[in-house]
Amino acid sequence: MADHAIRLNDGLDAYIRTVGMRESEHLRALREKSKATLVNAQLAIMPEEACFLDLLVRLSGAKRIVEIGVYAGYSTLALAQALPEDGYIVALERDERFPPVGQPFWKEAGVDHKVDLRYCDANEGIEVVLQENGPESFDFAFIDADKASYMNYYEKCLELVKPGGLICVDNVLWYGRVIDEADTTHQTEAIRRINEHIVADDRVDMSMLTIGDGLTVVRKR
């Protein structure tokens, strides 16, 4: 039995992206557009993570998704492409500069009608979604926004998703900073707190994965 996961290098990354995942033409075009035009393009999820989210949506049969943090809309597009035609995403984003980069690609992919994009503070926006729809009204949640608010996002999403529903929490390894004892910045401390909270939460089943910058998949019991 191996005592640790294989350490990825550039060659293995390239191999995985060749034979281990599928990235649609529209996703690839959006990723390349983001890299070419946005200084912080690395804020988008990695293509293998997008592929995994796509699979989770299809496996779970999700129709209603809430996404907290859109950035340029790469993850939004991945989720929307996985939804059935009658599915939809409520996508919350605070910064109006970035989603317009992705919106043309949503339209070209024929999924823009599935996306309810809302510019707002996500702490306020998730409250509105709860008020509009009620508890246990969504199937799937993806959290990838300001780290200081992760605890609130997680608790609100736990209210919002149905039993059996999934919550995916991104950046849970935080570029390796979670194990740097000298790093006491508020974002790193917030990631540590949510990780410790989830693993001790008997309301859910969970697994932390090393995909991307770390992704925790939670199933509400």
Give a brief outline of the structure.
The chain is an alpha/beta fold and 221 residues long. It is built from eight helices and seven strands; from the N terminus they run αααβαβαβαβαβαββ. α6 runs parallel beside α7.
Can you offer a commentary on this structure?
The structure is a single chain. The chain is α/β, with parallel strands linked by helices. Helices cover 42% and strands 20% of the residues. It has 8 helices and 7 strands. It has helices at residues 10-19, 25-37, 47-60, 74-82, 99-108, 122-133, 150-160, 186-199; strands at residues 64-68, 88-93, 115-119, 138-143, 161-170, 204-209, 215-220. Strand 1 (64-68), helix 4 and strand 2 (88-93) form a beta-alpha-beta unit. It is globular.
Secondary structure tally: strands: 7
Please summarize the sheet with the most strands.
7 strands, mixed
How many helices? The count is 8
Q: Give the CA-based shape.
A: globular
Q: Low-confidence parts lasting 5 or more residues at pLDDT below 50? A: none
Integer-rounded radius of gyration: 17 Å
Classify the helix fraction into a percent range: 40-55%
* Biggest sheet: strand arrangement: 3-2-1-4-5-7-6
Average pLDDT works out at 96
List keywords for this structure.
221 residues; alpha/beta; seven-stranded mixed sheet
Write the layout of secondary structure elements.
Blueprint: H1 10-19, H2 25-37, H3 47-60, E1 64-68, H4 74-82, E2 88-93, H5 99-108, E3 115-119, H6 122-133, E4 138-143, H7 150-160, E5 161-170, H8 186-199, E6 204-209, E7 215-220
Parallel strand pairs: 1-2, 1-4, 2-3, 4-5
Antiparallel strand pairs: 5-7, 6-7
